[in-house]
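Batch job 17 of 40 flagged for manual review because the log was empty.
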Amino acid sequence: MKKDARLLILLVFALLFSAALSCGQPAVEGSTAAPVEIALPAPDTIGKVPVEQALAKRRSVRQFAPEDLTLSQIGQLCWAAQGITEPTHGLRTAPSAMAAYPLDLYVVKSDGVLRYLPQGHKLIKLSGEDKRAAISTQASVGAAPVVFVMVGVMSRTARFGPRAERFVAIEAGHVGQNLHLQAVALGLGSVSVGGFQDADVVKALDLPEGQMPFYVIPVGKPAT
């Protein structure tokens, strides 16, 4: 009995030691661990470029310098697109029919896929793979340091019946213009991309059923 008791104690200690070694180790892909959240710097709500100047300078840019965007720049672009400007009711930078906010904003970079969370102004990392080229065959998409993808969550506009998809498309236009003008204000370039296959984007972003891509916008520092 004493020998059995000693063996049991040794087994318990071994299990505890193994648990201690694994504590704090990064989660591997495919695990059930919570996704990594990345806090973004507070957005600049003053700026130095008048909206009229941004409108005058906005042009489609398809060639980008091989220079990563800073976290501050990415955060500013996300805020311009979908940021919360009235926290009491969660109202955002772009108008939305009955404040349904059916769009989710994805940020696709060389080191992975992230989704913007307006509440808390942060990113959540979904994948560590480079999915830029998988989104579209257009060279500007694969070469841009950051590609923003607007995805419509159609269940949020189901109440609008046959006009539901139209309202999502209208909102994507509002969000896209915000993003383009903010890019100009940051000294960056961008281009509107509609030439993509829905199925390719759905697969690249691993979108659930009932979600569909509406708009792709590559952003980066202009090559010239």
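Reviewer: the log was empty due to a logging misconfiguration, but the result itself is present. The first strand starts at residue 36 and ends at 39. Unflagging and moving on to job 18.
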